[in-house]
Automatic annotation (TrEMBL):
Span of domain FtsK: 339-534
PROSITE patterns for the chain: FTSK (PS50901)
Cell membrane in keyword set: no
Record has Membrane as a keyword: yes
Domain of life: Bacteria
SUPFAM superfamilies listed in its UniProt record: P-loop containing nucleoside triphosphate hydrolases (SSF52540)
Record organism: Amycolatopsis cynarae
Transmembrane segments: 153-171
Protein name: FtsK/SpoIIIE domain-containing protein
Alphabetical list of InterPro entries matching this protein: FtsK_dom, P-loop_NTPase
Binding sites annotated in the UniProt record for ATP: A357, V358, P359, R360, M361, G362, K363, T364
Keywords tagged on the record: ATP-binding, Membrane, Nucleotide-binding, Transmembrane, Transmembrane helix
Amino acid sequence: MNPTPGEGGKVIAFPTTNPPEILDAELVDDHTPVPVDTPAVDGSTWLERLRSQQRQPILPSYLTSLSEAKEAGKWVARHYAHKAGYHLARSPLYALRLAVRSPRGLLLLAVATGRWVTDAEGRPARSETATGDKAELYLKLSQQRDRRVQLRWIQLGLVAALGLVAFLVLPHVLPEWVLWSCAVLAVGLLGKLGSPKDKPVIASRAVLSGKVQKLTSDSVVQALSVLGIAGINQALAKNPDAIGFPAPITRDGPGWRADVDLPPGVTVAEVIERRAKLASALGRPLGCVWPEGNAEIHPGRLVLWVGDQDMSKSRQPTWPLRKTGTVDLFRPQPFGTDQRGRWVDITLMFVSMVIGAVPRMGKTFTLRELLLIAGMDARAELHCYDLKGTGDLSPLAPISHRYRAGDEPDDIAYALADLRALAGELRRRAKVIRELPKDLCPENKVTPELAGKKSLGLHPVVLGVDECQKWFEHPDHGAEIEEIVTDLVKRGPALGFVTLLATQRPDARSIPTAISDNAVLRFCLKVTGQQANDMVLGTSSYRNGIRATTLSFRDKGIGYLVGEGDEPRITRSVYLDGPDAEQLAARARTTRVAVGRLTGYAAGLDLTPDEDDGSTLLTDVLAAIGDADKAWSEAIVDRLAELRPAIYGPWADLPTGSAKATQLASALKPFGISTKQVWGTDPATGKGANRMGVKRDWIAQALTERDQQRGHG
Ligand SMILES: Nc1ncnc2c1ncn2[C@@H]1O[C@H](COP(=O)(O)OP(=O)(O)OP(=O)(O)O)[C@@H](O)[C@H]1O
C-alpha cells in the first residue's frame, strides 16, 4: 500500500539507528503517522526463518538409491574396461614406437651423462669470469669444477663397472624371462626418453573429455538479460544485482543447477517461453537447458538445470522391470527418467491417463510401455485397442483379455461390445463394493486385498486406446462410446478401472472434455500449440509455464508428466521396441499361465460381437457336462479342450486343477454363473470329494434366458 497521508498529516522517518525501509505508512490520527513495516528484518521469528530453509540431501542420490549406485558402479567399470581395451588393442603400436625411439633415447642419455660428468651446466659461469678482472673468481670456479668432475668420473666408473659385472654375471643367475623383461623395460624407458614432447607414445585418447562449461551466476544473469523480458532488463538497468541467487550453483546429477530469484514482477513462465533463446544465450543445445518453476516458493523462483548432455541423447539407465520382476499396480512403478537420469514413478491404480503429442513423438511407445507395466501385474485384465491399425500393440495380444487393431466397422463393433460389457462390469462392481462390510472396504473403493480375491472379481481392468479420437468421432457410435468411457474415467478408478487414452490430435473432439478433465495423469510429448498443450496437461498449464510446445522434434519419448507428485516433471519414457515388448509380454504371459489368469483373447476365448453374449461357451460347457447333472470344473475344462482344442487347449494346459477351475469361473462370470463346490468322484483314485464345479441346470437356465432374450423362444 502506498503512503496515504490524510489531510494535514505527514509521514515521518522511522526513528531507529538502523532504520527499516519505510515503504508504507498508515496514519492513526491526523498527526501521528505510524509505519506499517516492523523494524525487524522481515518480520519473521528466528524459528520461522529456520523452518523456511530447505534442507539439502545429506548424501548424493547415487548413494541413497541402490539402483543408482549399481548403475554408477557399472558405468565406472565399463568406462575403465573400455579404456583398457582401447589401449590394449594399440599396444603393439606403442611397443613399436618405443623400440624405434629407443636409439634416440640412448643418445640423449649419453649426451646428458657427458654433460653431467663434465659439469657442463657450470660452463657459462666460468666463461663469464674468464675475461676481465675476475681471474681470482675464475680460478676458484675452475678448481671447484676439477674436483666435481673428478668425483663424477669416479661415480660414473663405479656405475659402469657395476653394470659390466651385472651384464656378465646376471645372465647366468637370473631366469631368461627376467632378463627379457629387463631388456624390454630398458628399451621402453629409452623409447620414452627418446620421444619428442609433441609426439607422445600414446597419441590418441580412449575417451574424449565431455567437460562442459561450468554454469556461473554471471552466465545466468547474462543469458537472462538477453531474453527480451522487459521486467528483467528494467530491473537490471536500475540494479545490476536485481537477479538473486538464493542458493549456490551446484552440480546436480549430470548437470548444473541454479536457483534463481527473478526480479519482482517477472514470472518463470516468461523465461520458459523463451527456452530456445535461453539455450542460445548459454551456448548449450536446447535439450540441455531445462528451466522450471518452484511455485511453492513464488512464481518468480526459477530452477534452471543445465545438463552436460542433450536429454534425448543421454543414455537412459536400464529399466528396472526389463529383466525381471512383477508389478503391483497399486504401487509406484518406474515409468521414465527425468533430465537428471533419475527414475520417475507412476501409480496406475485409481487414475485415468491422457497421452498427447504430434505424430511420431513416442505416444504409442509410451502407451505400450504402460500396458506392459499393467500386464506384469497378473491380476490386471488388459483391453488393448490400436485404432491406427498398424499392430503397434500386437506384442500385448498374448496377455490381453480383449485386443483389436484397426478401426473397420467390425473392429468398432467388437470394441462396442467390449465397452458395453465393461459398463455392465462397472455397475456390478459398484454393487459389490456397496454391499461389502465397511471393515473390508473402508473407503468404498478397491483395495489391493480386495483386488487379489478372485471370488469378488475386483481385479484391475486396464483399457488402453491408441488414437482414441477414432472412437469418439465415430459418426454412429461415438456418443455411446463417449458415454461409457466418461463413466469409466469418472466412476471407474475407484472400482479398479484404469483408462489410458492416447491421441495425436489433442482437441475437444479427440478427447471429450468430460474425459480429459477427469484424467488425473497426463503425459504431453511435443505439441505445437497452447490449446493442445492445455488440452493434455490441463487448463492454464501453458500460462503457468508448463509448455510441451518448447520441446523439440528431436525430443522423442520426452514430455511433461503431470499428476504424479506435486510438480509437473519432464520425463523420458522407456524405449522398448517391438522385440523388447514381445519379450516382456512373453514373461508376463508365463506368470499369468502359472496363476491361472490367462483370459479372453489371450486364452483363445475372444468375444464375438455378432452374438450378444460373445461365444459358444455355454453350449460347449453343456456338452462337456453331458448327461450328468453336475461336474467338476477341471473335468469340464479337459473335456472342453477335447471338444475345441484351438479355443480351450490353453485352459487344459494350466498346471493345476484349481487353475483350470479359476479359468472356467472367470469365463462363466459374464453369463452370471458362479462355480460352486460340487460332489464328484476322482477318476484316478475313485474317491469322492467336493471341488469347484458347475451344475447342468445352471448352464441350461442361462442358455434358455439368452435364447428368450434373442427372441428364439
Ligand atoms: N522413450 C523413447 N526414447 C527414444 N525414442 C523414442 C522413445 N519413444 C519413442 N521413440 C521413437 O519415436 C518414434 C515414434 O514413436 P511412436 O510410434 O510411439 O510415435 P507416435 O507419437 O505414436 O506416432 P504416430 O502418431 O505416428 O502414431 C519411434 O519409432 C521411436 O524410435
